[in-house]
Amino acid sequence: MLAVVTISWRPDRAVRRTVLALGAAGLTVIATGAILDACGCSVSGVWAIIAAMVIELVYRP
Length: 61
What we know:
The chain is an all-alpha fold. It has two helices and no strands.
């Protein structure tokens, strides 16, 4: 069962947008690195995903 959480407080929305932006950017960079066969590019994307996860875990009330 999946619960839908509504976020109404402004700082929560900003953090949510930041996490989603970091995750999307990380996935884009990973995909670009895989296509171009650039390991450094993929590593940067992985770090962006890790940063998004850490922000999400730390900020959760």
